[in-house]
Amino acid sequence: MEPVKQAQNLFKGAFIMTAAVLVTKLLSAGYRIPFQNIAGDVGFYIYQQVYPFYGIAIALATTGFPVVLSKLYAERRERGGQLLAASYIVLQLFGLICFGVLYTGAGFIARLMGDPGLVVLIKVVSVVFLLFPPISVLRGYFQGKGDMVPTASSQIGEQVVRVATILMVAVLFTSQGLSLYYVGSGAMLGSITGGIVSLAILVLFFRNRREDLLSVFSHSLRMPPLKEIKHAAKMLGLQGLAICIASLLMVFIQLADALNLYSLLVGQGIAPEAAKEMKGIFDRGQPLIQLGLAVASAISLSVVPLIASNRLTRDKAFLVHNIRLAMHVTAVIGAGAAAGLWMIAKPANIMLFENAKGTAVLAVLSSAIVFSSAISTAAAILQGRGVLFKPAAAILLGFPLKYILNLALVPQFGTLGAAWATAITLCGIAICAILFLKSSMDVEIFQWVFLKKTGIALAAMLIFLKLFLAGTGFLYGIGSERAAAAIQAVGASLCGAFIYALAIVRSGVFRTEDLALFPFGSKLLLLLPKDRSRI
Hints:
- By secondary structure, the chain is mostly helical.
- The protein has 25 helices and no strands.
């Protein structure tokens, strides 16, 4: 019965972590909308220029290093204390190097971005790299023991405090008429307060396990052997960074834009303030992409534990079916979200960001949802199968590709060119990830029948949305523009989602027993014809 118990623990832990990831992603995406409303497009530009550095730090503390540490600790628990001590030394040295590079190189990085005013923000965010090592070690320790609650609690607590800090500082500083660069610096302070709270939560959980505390560190009060440090550095440097890179997809895309989009716009003769506003308008797409990606990933990745548990059952048919299921769910939800946002880009833009500026850019960026969700799910499946470096390499190469495409397209098409550069880059990485997945299993991931049925469902939704938007256009003449846009956007989203779900379920894209596994699966079963409504 040991495999059954192991599988049960796997599913329980996966459920807790999936819920935590969904909450934190929703918080991380959602706060940017009120922040943009408070600080404006220029303030949003300032914040987004430095955000990728925080994104890298949070990935190090959340995905790669804790995952590898948990695996090593579970395998070598008898020497767990030395392992954790050695890992902390390695990670703290790495954190100090990252902090030093960012803090001392803040001026150079700001000049590279074309905006010397960003120096203070870069110095503030550099402090986060001093906090991630102890956070990573403690999360890895708890996860290695199979206890996911401390990690999940620390992630949620970190994001709640961070978001609260950002919004409170933005309101306070803007009300006092301070420079938007001070507003951005204050917002970046949220990354530090959030990190401190995350560490405090983990320490509190640690103190509540006093027996474990003594057993873990009773042999670790002295310097661990050099051999142990080298082993920890090797494992963290290879596996940890590979897993981290796989979770940094959108951060690399944002980093490429931060490094050259603004300077390219200025280089075309656009005034600096106008270029900052244009970059801020371009960045409106990020929270919407993240929201779509969060929903698509959370639902599709709920299937990934089934794939990982195959190592316990060794059932190839089971494995192949669930890999296809995860990718099909990703494609269906990602394509639906991308096509829906493309159709309602204008009312959604007005509802969330007060005006329709950059609607064409937002429409192009909507394609990022389907590509990025496919990449994330494929990379997670490959990692579950022990394939770490191929998806990481594809994602890492996406950064120079995006940077070069910006150089080619922005001078001709402005921010719309940058949007197309994002779409092309993500499409290329998605194709690579799917090919890697296909070759690792030697199976076809997307069959023609699936693509045909999904395409018909998309067409039905798009036709409905076109008619819905045309039929509700009169609302703009009887009330405020933002209220009318809100009615259109929310109404179109709800009705369009229902039409799409109905078409997907009725056409038999998914088996009845698969629908029952989804969140709200019992509700989806109600959409089936009566002859298929029973499993």
